[in-house]
Amino acid sequence: MMNNTVILAEKPSQAGAYAEAFDTSERKNGYYIVSNNEFKNAIITYGFGHLVSLYSPEEYNENLKYWSLESLPITPSPFKFKVTKDKMKQYKIVKEHLDNADTIIIATDLDREGEAIARFIINHSGNSHKTIKRLWINSLEKNEIQKGFKNLKNGNDFYTMYKEAETRAFSDWLVGMNLSRLYTLYMQKNGMKGSFSIGRVQTPTLYLIYQRNKEIEEFVSKPFFELYSNFTHEKGKYKGKYAERFNSLEDLKAFEEENKLDNAKGIIKEVTTEEKRSYAPKLFSLSDLQSEMNKRFNYGASETLNIMQTLYEKKIVSYPRTDTNYIGTPEFEYLKSNLTEYLSLINKNIPDPQLNENKRYVNGKKVQEHYAIIPTKTIPKLDSLNEKERNVYEAILYRTLAIFETPYIYDETTILTEVNKVEFKTTGKIEKDLGWKRIIKDEKEDRKDEEDLDTPLPNVLKDDEVVSHTEIKEGKTTPPKYYTEGTLITAMKNIGRNLDNEEDQDVLKEIEGIGTEATRANVIDTLKYQKYITNKGKNILVTEKGKTLCSTLKDNEITNAELTAEWEKYLKKIREGQGTQERFLESITRFINHLIDTAPKTFKDSDIEDHVKKIEDENTVAPCPACDKNLVDKGKFYGCTGYPNCKFTLSKEFRNKKINKKEIKELLENKETIITNLKSKNGNKYNAKVKLNDKNYIEFVEFANK
Questions:
Q1: Residue 319 catalytic?
Q2: C-beta separation of 287 from 323 below 8 A
Q3: CB 290 within 8 A of CB 305
Q4: What is the pLDDT of residues 435-488, one digit of tens each?
Q5: What is the pTM assigned to this prediction?
Q6: CA distances from 67 to 123, 179, 181, 185, 203 (A)
Q7: How far apart are the C-alpha atoms of 304 and 509, rounded to whole Å?
Q8: Is CB count within 10 Å lower at the N or C end of the chain?
């Protein structure tokens, strides 16, 4: 029996789930007292995520509160940690218990971030010398928690994982603090307003979106023409397609006439029928689930992660932040045991369940810290879930059940028809077994299948004769599609495919691209918060602020995913015990110094002045009525660019309704305007004539028609 044991959870809900798994538990202020056969009066306490965080620059030196180029680079040695006021109360509770502990069990989330959260608290409290164990489970179900506490791992086995996370945190601090200050100051020197955030992952992600937006903006659509032939055979009709496209109608018609293709005799050169089969999609990783939920329901990446966290805490799905699509044998066995219950939950049936392991889904070698997202043994009442929770849970459940189905099997028939030595190809499909498609419906794929199945092909044979009747179809080349949050998550995960360097491709493929399953959603949120990107429907667009940054840094290493590949290669070495934190941070410092040295040339060669002018034009509402400057959007109000000499300001709202630029312009020119769609206290809409009084306040004049 372990004495004086403290179990350190990441958050209160996690601690509560652990407490429920013990024979007895008593809730106290900020902790639980629990007991069972292995533990007597053990303490479960928790953080609120990060209780401990890194110092900000001004906490090392108060002069760093004021940004200047002369103060760069900022390179703390050693890095220091603090506890913020809002977390101090809980930290003191945690520290008191850690101080009294003989053994500390780290029970935070089972990833690098979770390991770092725990170790930072333990180190800061001065308890890193204590015996440390590790709880390693992928589910918050009671029996899984109990099994985990009976099979604790040695904490030392995860020390290098912590060092990797700590090194990443230090390097991200160095890059973020130094380069954000560096480029903000140069931006401001060139007339830009506000601050610019730079990050190891967020900046190449922003550049990815910027490049896609630029491709779309610069895309010139071109027409193309395709040649088809409707063939008449004594047993029926079918359509074939000529492989090449034509750039002009004239070229196509010339080709058609030269080869005498219309109303001509053809001969069937080949008829082949091949049985094809496709297997169910792989199980979900977090990125795959985020992409799917965005495509189907327009859920944002963070929204899906938050829903998943709720389902995890309800103990009905496995650990959310997983980067693998595989499960091991134990998981497959419990899924198999619960198959009947899962199916009855959604009123489905699998006539011939596949109960042997398939390496496409079950492969213990591909499961390291986590396995794929799957349902747990706990069967929920679907009615107890809200709409979004149910949508996500059912997507996971259906994807999991599909692996027990047979393959989708169909016969694909290909007919090659030759008309005066010009070949046309026809493909048709006959379904033999729907297999996993009985469980999962892919609307896009189904539509394609229906098109293939629309008209059954006639029973033709090689060397049969047909008559050709040509048909011309016109199309236009289309630009690439804007990123959505779903496709951006996928692009971040697969970004290594676009690199020229094969070694970097391999590294990024191995580490699943840039960012991690847990951080990609947060990166997107950061880009939105910084006003670098905005959503238009599902599409992600780069704002003028984002364009300015990307255009200025277009030749800079910080925008390049290869940089992340190099970092990840060495961080992986730290985890494997083959690299050192000191060496890595030295290389980061050299990198920052290089960018500080090259910044003047970066801005000298940029077109930032054009962007500054464009932003000013976009923000300008009207000429200032008090001077010869412009009235611009200042965020919460409209103000004069001549400030402080001219202090003219104007509210952006009237009776809780935002006044648009057109209304403001008319108000300033005519001293009055009509504001539409105002809401009364009882919710009725009305229009009002307003005027600008002598004190530059907007006054109600009378109700008005639109």
A1: yes
A2: yes
A3: yes
A4: 999 998 754 555 455 555 546 899 999 999 999 999 999 999 999 999 999 999
A5: 0.85
A6: 31, 12, 7, 8, 21
A7: 24
A8: C
